[in-house]
Design a protein that fits this description.
Elements: H1 18-30, H2 35-50, E1 57-58, H3 64-76, E2 86-88, H4 89-96, H5 106-116, E3 120-124, E4 129-133, E5 138-139, E6 144-145
Antiparallel strand pairs: 1-5, 2-4, 3-4, 5-6
Helix pairs in contact: 3-5
């Protein structure tokens, strides 16, 4: 990525561990940027990812890993016969395992923490163990709002 045009109207100062800054500098060097340019790029990406602050945002777990897992489960789950959204435990494990969380650890490291925070629940069915996924709720920063109140699909 080339040099970013900027005309900073504000300066920011913050503390950061030396090792983290050294790694950031190495990443910036690899991308032919200086530290300030890389930090501006990262801030821009974060602002874009969080969206319009005037629009309600999904109510997600605080832990990034659990938030991403909840999004994946919510997307994957279906609601047969207009019942609660659910996905089989096996399908959930297949979707959520990765290099840092082997398939055998998904239940304990991801699904149970989601269950303890109210985002999912595990329940045995006749022949299948199901992971029930809470409907996506939205917040305006203070209160939970109904999706149709703010035009959210």
């Amino acid at each position: 990525m080339g040099r970013m045009d900027h005309n900073p109207s504000s300066r920011v100062s913050f503390g950061c561990p030396d090792e983290l800054l050294e790694t950031l500098d190495e990443i910036a060097d690899r991308e032919d940027m200086n530290r300030s340019e890389k930090l501006r790029e990262l801030v821009q990406k974060e602002v874009e990812a969080k969206g319009d602050l005037n629009e309600p945002q999904p109510d997600l777990p605080d832990d990034e890993r659990l938030a991403e897992a909840y999004r994946i489960l919510h997307e994957r789950a279906s609601a047969p016969h207009k019942t609660e959204r659910r996905v089989s435990l096996e399908a959930a494990k297949n979707k959520l395992y990765d290099n840092s969380t082997p398939k055998s650890a998904v239940l304990d490291e991801i699904i149970k923490p989601l269950e303890s925070t109210g985002y999912a629940s595990v329940s045995p069915g006749n022949q299948t163990v199901w992971v029930y996924v809470r409907p996506m709720l939205y917040t305006d920063g203070e209160d939970i709002v109904e999706p149709d109140e703010k035009g959210i699909a």
